[in-house]
Amino acid sequence: MPKRATGLTKRGNIWHIEKEIRGYGRLRESTGTSDYEEAEAYLNKRLTDIRQAIVFGVRRKRFFREAATKYLLENQHKRSIATDASHLKQLDKWIGEKTIDQIHDGTLQPFKDYRAKTVKRKTINLALEVVRRILNLAARSWRDEHGKTWLETAPLITMLNILDARKPYPLSWDEQSHLLKHLKPHHQKMWLYKVNSGCREEEVCLLEWDWEVHIPELETSVFILPAEIVKNAEDRLVVLNRVAKSVVDSCRGDHPKYVFTWKRGPDTKPAPLKSMNNSAWKKSRAKAAESYKDVFGYDAPEGFARIRVHDGKHTCGRRLRAAGVALETRKVLLGHKNGDITSHYSAPEIAELIDAANSICDVDTRKTPTLTVLKRKTA
Questions:
Q1: Is residue 99 within 8 Å of 62, Cβ to Cβ?
Q2: More confident of the two residues 342 and 294
Q3: Residues paired with residue 149 on neighbouring β-strands, in sequence order
Q4: pLDDT tens digits for 212-258?
Q5: Rounded to whole angstroms, how far apart are CA atoms 326 and 320?
């Protein structure tokens, strides 16, 4: 019977390394396998890597999967970590078993070609940005037990030219009325709030009553959104024009925590939505597109047929601009980063913002057909 390697101990079903190495110290780690031969091969590989590092200063070869795992574990605080994990799951099939020094534009090309069949180039670029970030960390920050970086030099990862991005589609007033007729009641409220407040989808779905701040001298209220749910990571002031306020008031008493909810059936309790862009939204959008020609006399433009939830924010911004609202005021109303501390607005300043927001409720502001005509001609 062949002699077994020293330094391997089985704990449960997994073999672990426990070995003292001259010039290195004690090596303690799991082999990740219950098979002895695989564990022995892993131990021998680790011993070779350590000896090469000690004697010749050679970096240990690391698989991209190991680097991706380290990145995910160290960045649990990131708001987008779930999205990053999704991208890395897609990438693992293509580069997970390649060493990080083998990752470059050439080895990424099969992944890009495959994903291009089903997703936009922007989505592919988001995945490539995660790869680039990991390789930069491996070359600059992550160091082994000998003080050497995981990677000698990070390669240049080329982003794809975005030629297929879908352009924003601000709705005209008539198009909005047509869309609303086909939306579910809870989506109607959320869309009207969104298009009148300029909020993003997450800011609508997660809106809580605890964030409402009453302003007695103005006989109204505003919402202060915490930085955790705002894209630019700053607290955001949301003022309510007449339409947005009426929508909020209609939701009072429905749920103790969340403003916007829905009910699966008449006997079920209201619950918050994780996303507006769900199957109900897509079905309503399709029905509105199918009947578009009956109302307007021509087929629905591609932008309307594929109207996105985020187009509500674009519609709000376009209407504010058409109403003559100044750029700086539009930035505040739309929640764009401007360096101000939103919780420090005075009552007169808030009143000014409310007046600006109310400008897109007035009937006269709806008589601005020129931009709509230009949009249709270029659709």
A1: yes
A2: 294
A3: 143
A4: 999 999 999 999 999 888 888 888 999 999 999 999 999 999 999 99
A5: 8
- What token pair was written down for 323? 């109403």
State how far the Cα of 250 lies from the Cα of 253, in Å rounded to an integer: 9
Give, for 352, the enclosing helix (H) or strand (E).
Answer: helix 347-358
Whether residue 354 lies inside any domain: the answer is yes
Distance of alpha carbon 179 from the chain centroid:
26
63, 96 contact by CB (below 8 A): yes
pTM flag (> 0.85): no
* Mean pLDDT taken over the chain: 88
Tell whether 365 is covered by a domain. Answer: no
Instruction: State the Cα–Cα distance between residues 42 and 23, nearest whole angstrom.
Output: 20
Residue 117's pLDDT is: 93
Radius of gyration over alpha carbons of the chain, in Å? 28
The answer as to whether 152 is a domain residue is no
Residues 200 and 252 in one domain: yes
d(CA 32, CA 104): 28
Beta bridge partners of 27: 19
Residue 45 has pLDDT above 70, yes or no: yes
What's the CA gap between 206 and 274, in Å, rounded?
Answer: 8
Closest of 95, 32, 99, 8 to residue 62, by C-alpha: 99
Which two three-digit tokens encode residue 206? 């997660």
Q: Are residues 209 and 325 in the same domain?
A: yes
Cα-based angle 101, 107, 108 (whole degrees, multiple of 5) = 110
Give residue 41's domain range: 8-56
Task: Concatenate the DSSP letters of all residues of 90-146 into one string.
Answer: HHHHHHTTSBGGG-SHHHHHHHHHHHTTTS-HHHHHHHHHHHHHHHHHHHHT-B-TT
In Å, how far are 117, 182, 291, 299, 305 from 294, measured between CA atoms?
34, 14, 5, 9, 14
Report residue 372's pLDDT band, with 50, 70 and 90 as the boundaries: very low
Cβ-proximal residues to 220 (8 Å cutoff; 6+ apart), any chain? 214, 240, 245, 354
Inside any domain, residue 329: yes
Contact between 342 and 267 under an 8 Å Cβ cutoff? The reply is no
Q: Given a cut of 80, is residue 338 above it in pLDDT?
A: no
How many of the other CB atoms lie within 10 Å of CB of 371?
14
> Does 78 lie in the same domain as 200?
no
Indicate if 217 and 355 belong to the same structural domain. yes
